[in-house]
Task: inverse folding
């Protein structure tokens, strides 16, 4: 799956069986994430090229740009979801606290625990209760809290996701019975329960009403104190409200996606260096 940038495509290898991951940490510590010269291919077609980006610990970084410019592909690369797609290849490095997540010593399961992901469409387990949804990720990590430890964990994660006050009397309700915004916050609680260092969010509010969107945005800002957040969004007002840093992706016709400008959110919106950035963030294209 890894290759040098100029090398011919190689077939994606099946991942080798791995032992059970180590026990979970009890405290979440946000980690810095760095992409260094990342390029990606699908079935030999280059889709993003030479992307380098530092995502600072305990900050929110927004990935912005038109559809089809590689933002979601880049996000999936950050927790090794890219490699599960047949024909997918990668060059470059992704460093989590200085350690290459694609290195031979790093197990995919451990990477995806440390770098969790919330998707565009809420995807709680509909036949599981709210409580069991929160705990579901822990089952794959070999940790099964019981009694008061379990109750405290469920309350903590639902509180961090901004949901506990709304569902504290409904913990035995099926996850599929919650509203769309509540389901998305339940997915955030589920992701946080495994104590990740980084949380990736792929357009988490695109299917939600304004009230639910506001609550998700508040949650992003609140959890960023302990978890590094990287969010893909097409909503420029949202990027301004929630992020500390922005990176603008663009792709030309039949050309791969690249970052054309990155920096503090204030600079990107108020003092961009590239005219294309100014045009995009002010709605003149895209």
Result:
């Amino acid at each position: 799956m890894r290759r040098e940038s100029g090398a011919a495509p190689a077939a994606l290898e099946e991942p080798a069986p791995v032992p059970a991951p180590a026990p979970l940490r009890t405290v979440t510590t946000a980690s810095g994430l760095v992409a260094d010269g990342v390029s990606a291919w699908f079935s030999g077609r280059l889709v993003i090229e030479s992307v380098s980006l530092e995502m600072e610990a305990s900050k929110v970084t927004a990935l912005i740009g038109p559809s089809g410019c590689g933002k979601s592909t880049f996000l999936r690369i950050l927790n090794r979801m890219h490699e599960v797609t047949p024909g997918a290849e990668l060059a470059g490095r992704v460093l989590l606290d200085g350690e290459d997540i694609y290195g031979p010593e790093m197990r995919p399961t451990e990477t995806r625990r440390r770098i969790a992901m919330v998707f565009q469409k809420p995807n709680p387990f509909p036949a599981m209760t709210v409580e069991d949804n929160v705990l579901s990720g822990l089952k794959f990590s070999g940790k099964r809290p019981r009694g008061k430890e379990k109750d405290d964990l469920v309350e903590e994660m639902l509180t961090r996701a901004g949901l506990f006050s709304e569902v504290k009397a409904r913990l035995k309700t099926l996850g599929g019975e919650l509203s769309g915004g509540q389901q998305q916050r339940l997915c955030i609680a589920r992701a946080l329960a495994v104590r990740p260092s980084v949380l990736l969010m792929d357009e988490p509010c695109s299917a939600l009403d304004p009230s639910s969107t506001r609550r998700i945005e508040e949650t992003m800002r609140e959890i960023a104190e302990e978890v590094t957040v990287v969010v893909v969004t097409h909503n420029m007002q949202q990027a301004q409200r929630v992020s500390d840093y922005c990176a603008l992706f663009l792709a030309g016709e039949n050309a791969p996606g690249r970052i054309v400008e990155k920096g503090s959110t204030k600079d990107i919106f108020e003092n961009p260096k590239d005219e294309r950035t100014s045009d995009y963030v002010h709605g003149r294209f895209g």
User: Anything to note?
Assistant: The mean pLDDT is 88.
